[in-house]
Amino acid sequence: MQRYEKGEAQPTLEMIRKLSKALTVSADRLLFDDDERGPDDSLRLQFEALQQFDDDERATAQAVLEGLILKHQARQSQLRMQPKKKASG
Question: Which Pfam families does the UniProt record give (predicted)?
């Protein structure tokens, strides 16, 4: 454990799984700081409100979010595919 904490060694995925079970925490909890995962405060309340939705409303909200995520990913992919402009100098 000390070697992992000191950064002297990296645990395998199997070791992370075992640690997660032994410590009864998620692997995310072991791998990420509290502010690295989950929505930021500006979205957290909105996501909490989704818990009050019925199944149909929740499915609609999920479909909208998935569509927005796919649109964003497509845009990012297009930007990566564009030829880099040479800096003038």
Answer: HTH_3 (PF01381)
